[in-house]
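MODEL INPUT / OUTPUT PAIR
PAIR INDEX: 1
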Amino acid sequence: MSTTTTTKLFDYPKYWAECYPTAPFLPMSRDEMDTLGWDSCDIILVTGDAYVDHPSFGMAIIGRLLESQGFRVGLIAQPDWKSKTAFEALGKPNLYFGVTAGNMDSMINRYTADRKMRSDDAYTAGGLGGSRPDRCSLVYSQRVREAYPDVPLVLGGIEASLRRIAHYDYWQESIRRSILVDATADILLYGNAERALVEVSHRFARGDTVDTMMDIRGCAFMRRKTPQGWWEIDSTRVDRPGKVDHIVNPYVSTTDSSECEKASVVEGGGKVLRFVPDARKNRDRTVIRLPSFEKVRNDPVLYAHANRVLHLETNPGNARALVQAHGDHDLWLTPPPIPLSTEEMDYVFAQPFQRVPHPSYGDQNIPAYEMIRFSVNIMRGCFGGCTFCSITEHEGRIIQNRSEESILGEIEDIRDKVPGFTGVISDLGGPTANMYRLACKSPEIEAACRRPSCVYPGICKNLNTDHSSLTQLYRKARDLPGIKKILIASGLRYDLAVEDPEYVKELVTHHVGGYLKIAPEHTERGPLDKMMKPGIGSYDRFKEMFEKYTKEAGKEQYLIPYFIAAHPGTTDTDMINLALWLKENGFRADQVQAFYPSPMATATAMYHSGKNPLKKVSYKSDTVEVIKSPEQRRLHKALLRYHDPLNWPLIRKELTALGRKDLIGPGPGKLVPLVDEVQSYSAHRRKNSSQAHNKRMQKNQMLTQHTGLPPRDTGSKKPKHRPARPSK
């Protein structure tokens, strides 16, 4: 871990407004402010989610944490963005506005992987879509600027984190600038950001400006040029796209310090001056210059290169600042924040959350709240490094753990305070269910490591895989009075779980509610290597253990594997082999997941560039199979649902084109039936439909005879006038 000195979250002197009592809910109106005796807010947070005062909702955590620092915090949730009026509801804040899209990127929240608009929104009261705009953070920021142009604007949340640098936008199929530039915010905080936000808030409170905050880790801001005293490394000298000069590579992704300590550097943004024999000694004053926005916009290979360098600079122990020109200004990214200690994590989760939605929503249902109502978050971060996932980019790869006492205390709070609790905790987890208290065996190695994953291509020998702390936590949790069952619903890293059979036994015997969902994602090595996922053999080992302990417990439980279609690196043959594996193992997926290129993910860089950023990128390096056409994406999804007769014609056409007619026909080892069987199935459906229609007619006649009412319309035609949809 880095030796950088940091102030603990609970060691800051409180702001003067701590004299006010704790708010039952963060106020969302002037009336609530008046009730609290506030004449103004110090900080106003604007979010794209409905306000639920629960530690699984980002704005609740941030708001309560700032409240604990003595600040008066107001909240504007899902405002009407068509004018500035809603953003003036709480008046002008004394310190700053904080803007976030909410718990999800607003584009992913609003559109499917096929770019179709969703009709629902789990983070909205009533569950209806349309309560937030596209590119939510941008629109909210613009309205805040219109309302109060002189008030500092701080941007944060997952949408800002994943768009903090020039990024590929799947919906526009283009490279967009950093969201900081388009939002015209003063500063952007990436990651969970508690440490940075508390520091920024106290500095604003003492009268500092953003210009004096550029030493804070985990933030992005704009500068005119590199200041004097900084050493600047040109990223293309480290990982040159094209012919690579014979330069010692500091990104060897091992702990070989002799390789890492040499780099080409320049001073003050000028030309190359010399080699520095020990660049690590200058790390705190070193910045890596990425290709400019204009260059990565026009060159997909340079985009993949920039993405690779960014991901190699994510370890808080050795990461350096990054800079990327946007026109005549530079976007600066300071190194990632130092992870929270266990004591700080406990402090964050110990705030006085009501654990229910704000009273203004009345009886309206908020689907996301119902899902996590009785869940407990025990950790943060993930060192899996899956290329399609954004957890590492947002939360980091170093696991941040809560203490056992803090977790058990929260379970008791749920038992004693949350309405409707029946004794079942729906989840005890986090981004990955079983990474609690797992870490590198050596802090020195952890601080120097540049590997993007601790478990790929195999589990690192330096990784501690002992699950005993988690097993003990499960046992203590299920022994609490009033607790009937503790379920585990978070994603399970099964290749880690099999390293500790005692953990698997505890999990399977006591914490599975009939079904356990896990995600092997694929069976074929090609796509799995691009995902940085283990081979299907790890799944087979876990399945064997799962079935063994299920049988010993005398239960009927099933594994539900998840797979992904159309991921970069996947060929049509790979999907056919996966479909054959599914059929052989008797799996029939009801829903299938297609690859969704989220901003800044490594797999998204593959999708855009056709290159593999997991290796050194060049114009001549191997290309990656990319599935972009709607037709091929439909095919890959159809193969995951090989059992659906509606998909048979498409699958038959592909099998014929690939010369695999041997997979068409009846019997074992076949994937889809012959044409006449499809026609027979269609005739069978028509027959059943006709029989159902006749039954309805008979029932109608009987009702008419008994009631004297006119018969119902049982025709097959659709009504001419459909009822109007509820307003969004």
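PAIR INDEX: 2
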Amino acid sequence: MTRPVARLARLLARQWRLFLLAAVLAAGTTALGVGLMGTSGWLLATAAGLPGIAALQVAIVLVRFFGIGRGLLRYLERLVSHDATLRFLSKLRVHVFEAIVPAAFSLSATRRSGDVLARLVEDVDTLDRLPVRVLIPALGAILVGGLLAGLLLPFGAGMTLAALAGLAAAGVAMPLVAAAAGARAASDTVNLRADMQSALVDGVQGVADLVALGRAQDHVERVSALGGSLGSAQARSASASALGSSLAGLAADLAVVAVLALGVPHVGLGGLTVVQLTAITLVTLAAFEAVLGLPSGLQELGATSASARRIFELTDAPPAVVRPSAPTPVPDPPVVEASALTFTYPGSSRAAITGVSFRLAPGRPVVIVGPSGSGKSTVVALLLRQMEPGGGDLRIGGVDVRACDPDQVRSRIAVAAQRTHLFTGTLRDNLLMARPSASDAEMVRAATRARLHHVVIAWPGGYDTWIGEQGLQLSGGERQRLALARAFLRDAPVLVLDEPTANLDALTERKVIEEIWRASASQATFVATHRVTRIAGEAEVLVLRDGEIVERGRAAELRRAAGYFRQMLDLQRAAEAVDQF
């Protein structure tokens, strides 16, 4: 058993009572089938001798009992086995989601969203094959093998060994052959299905750009090629499954022939009657029902192993931040102090930021400016506890953030990120993500501060307007204002804004910036931006270039200095003058 499957089996063991009950019910179902076939054979063979009806009464009743009981037990077995499996999958999906949340930032940087979605949905669903098609039938087959041995042993060890050898061949050898033949195809199926999922998600999300750039047909051809490869892998997997099932059927037929061949001489010698041999042959044939499904189940161990490996890759991903076992509460007021912060992204040889220091408290906003790629968003991510600093100290309320619960730190911060995810739903739903308990008046006040309310009231649905998947019904400026409204509605003591006016027109930008500076009187406000023309004169400005602070000071002072900030200011003023012209 491969290591991913072994880990999966340990998780399944938590539901062992239900799985054992399902196996007993499966064995009971087969046992009743065995009884039905054996009794029917005895009944038909005995009836051929034209006995009185009284001699057949018990057999007739047993046939009815076995027939009705078999259907009832099959229903109960399906009910219990699927209940146990669905409970397991439900807990596993929650476990996977809880495991990837702490590593979400690093996963989003290294994995495609479609691939993560495929692991959470497709791969988890694939795991139901192990308990339903392998574990429960295998346990049931062991019980049926014991029952068959008990029934045949009184009639001879030879017939018993022949029947058990056939069961072993059909239930173990042939499934292993099928598993070996189809392992690669099953693994390829899982991986190609994930690639297909990723390509489809990319295509749906980027369909406008694909059409605009004239690359839609190229993407269709790529999806078509993936579909062809997936179909080929599935065909090879189906062929391996058919091979295993055919070999298992052959083993069953040979076992029945062997039992019959070993039994016939005993009939001639008087050790067995024809009626008994008929019943024994049919009992042996019926017992193989317990193992005939195992080849296809074991053949899919390759897919199960591949899916389990992909899931455990997510759950084993190291968290982006470490949650302390005994976290320290975040003190009030949550003044933020950064000292010589340094961070290097995994796989990079160059530090994203080096030696960044500042103090964040109400009354004096901190603005970090610089060109794209200078490290502004990295500082924001460190503030939001999305990743651990590589060096230096980051304190909140005088306490090292590493000693605090990351969720509690984030609860004290309101943020409008540069890339804000909008959920499928209404505008109201997306606003209330920031604070579900907010009243309508508070929601309207936050939207008004973000200069969004006057836009919303012109919509027929108002705040209940459906904004589409990822907010595609909104313009770039409306998305930006919605993100700001969320941050204002959060009403946290620390306000962090990353490029808050990047998609706003000049008039709206001026009003929003004024609102931000007003908020900084009561909130510790941190703004990352490359727009320097409207920074409040009293704000502390950190000029970041290539990850290092090259200038710092009050905005009013830096405007008069002949430094990098002044160069940025002059260039942006010139660009604004051209735009106005």
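PAIR 2 NOTE: The mean pLDDT is 85.
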